[in-house]
Amino acid sequence: MLKMLPVSTALVLTLTACGDDSSDDAVPTAQSAALVLQSEIPEITRLLEIDEDNDPNELIGRPNGYVGATVVFDSRVECPDDDPGVDCGATIEEWPSRKEAQERSDYIQSLQSGSSMLGSEWNTVRGKLLLRVTGNMKPSEAEGYAEIFESEDLAAEVDSAEADDSTPAATESDEQPSEPEDFVIESGFTTGTDSIGTRYTSAGARLTNANTDLAAYDVQVLFNLIGGNGEVIDTTTETVPYVGPGEAVPVAPLQIGFDLKAKPIDLQVQVVGEFSDDVGPKGPLSDKGVILQMEGVDVIKGDYGNEISGRVTNTTDEVVEWPSWSCIFLNGKKIVGGSSSTITDPIPPGSTVQFDDMLSIDGLLPKKVECRVLADLP
Hints:
The chain folds into two domains: about 10-165, no CATH class; about 185-375, no CATH class. The chain is about 15% helix and about 40% strand. It contains five helices and 18 strands. The chain has helices spanning about 30-40, 100-115, 140-150, 155-165, 170-175; strands spanning about 15, 45-50, 70-75, 90-95, 120-125, 130-135, 185-195, 200-210, 215-225, 230-245, 250, 265-275, 290-300, 305-315, 320-330, 335-340, 350-360, 370-375. Strands 1-5-6-4-3-2 form a six-stranded mixed sheet, sandwiched between helices. About 35% of the residues are buried.
C-alpha cells in the first residue's frame, strides 16, 4: 500500500543517477546510505530500518519486493502517527537489481501522475537503491537529498564507516585494558489487537555480558515503545539482579504496551549497570541468590489461548524463595517478544515445580524460548 499526502501533481518528477549496473559493487545498503544522509542533513532526527513486521508496503523479502529499506524522519515535515513511510521525510529502498529499482520508481510516478490524491514524491535511483523523498519537502530540500545520494563519495564514506564499526578497537583496548566492555543488547517485540480492539504487546531483550572476569549487579533495563511519529508511547523498567561473567540473560517486561491507541513501530532498549568483581548471584529480594534449573519450557496452544509452561528445579540443599523467571521468544535468531513472572511459593530442596502463564497475543507462537530463573537463598 502506498500512502501519500495529497499535493499538486506538478511536483511529480524523477531524478535518476547516471551509470549502469557495473557500478553496483560500490553502492551501499539502504541502511548505510541512510546513515550517510543523516550525517549530512541535520534535520534528519532518526532512522527506522524496515523489517517484515513494520513494513508499511508489505514488500520486504517477498516475491517481487525489495530486500531492504530504511525510513528517514525529517523534522521539516509531519509524520503520520501509525504509518511511517515516505511522508515522514524519505525512504530508501534496496532492490535486487538496478532494473527493478527503476521499475519501482516508474511505477510510483505513473500512479501519482494519474491522481493528485496519491500525493507526490521525488525519486532518485542509484544502482540498486531507490531514494524516495516526500513531495511535502521544498524542491531545494529534496535536491539536497538527491545531491548527497548521488555523490561519488557516498560509497567510500560508508565503506570507511562500516570498516571502523566492524574492526575491534585494538589500540583503545590496549591503552585502557581495565575498561569493561558494554553489554551486547538484542531486542524485539510483537504487537496485536484482540477481537474487541484491545492492543497487547510482547517485548523481550537478551543482555550479553562480554566481560569474562566481571559481573554486573542490579542492572536497570529500560524498554521504550516508539510510535509512528518517533515519540515514546509507553515505558517500563525491569531490574536484573545479577549478570555473571560471559552470561547471556533474557529480560522481558511484566507488561508493556497494553491498550495503546497508537500502534508501536519500534522498540528501544537501554541498559544501565556497573561491572564489578564476581561474588556470586544476587537474588530478586536478597543479597544471596541462585540460578535454578529450567527445563521443558515451551509455548503451546491452550484451551483459552497460547501459554508458556515449563518446570523449575531447585538443585540446592536449601529452600529457595521468590523464584523469578524471565523468557524471550524467538523465531530463528529474531527476538519476537517475551514474558516474565514470579513463582510465589517456596521450592524445597531437590523439588521440581510446574509454572504456566497465559500469553496476551493469540498469534504469538514462537519456535524457540530462552529462559532464566533467579531465586533468593535464606
